[in-house]
Write a structure and sequence with these properties.
Distance between the termini: 22 Å
Helix content: 55-70%
Strand order of the largest sheet: 3-2-1-4-5
Radius of gyration: 14 Å
Shape: globular
Largest sheet: 5 strands, parallel
Amino acid sequence: MLLLDTSGLLCYLHQDELQHQEAVQLFNQSNWSLTHSYVLAELVALAQVRGFPRIPTLNFINDLVDHPDIEIIWVNESLHRKAVALLMAREDKAYSLCDAVSFVLMQQHNLSQALTTDHHFEQEGFQRLLTK
């Protein structure tokens, strides 16, 4: 069981990413995964900034929403506020709000691993599965 983060999903989606093969293998090995709506939003923005085609990216996030082995958490006000509180408690870190939502969810679901390249997960005590 693992959390799917923006950078990990980008590696999975786009063959030009350095960790594409590893991301595909880890994604396919997982029998259950969790992600959230802020990751989906961030993935669309990141793919656009990197110059990846928009329609395949949108089709991919729609496929994630429909995937039977992926739970999507739709961020509500309570979760948002918990993530903001985490950010306020970690003023010394450069975490994004999306990262903070992931950390809160990982704690709530007792997850230790994330499909990500983001070192912030390690700073918060989680295992980053994609290292450069």
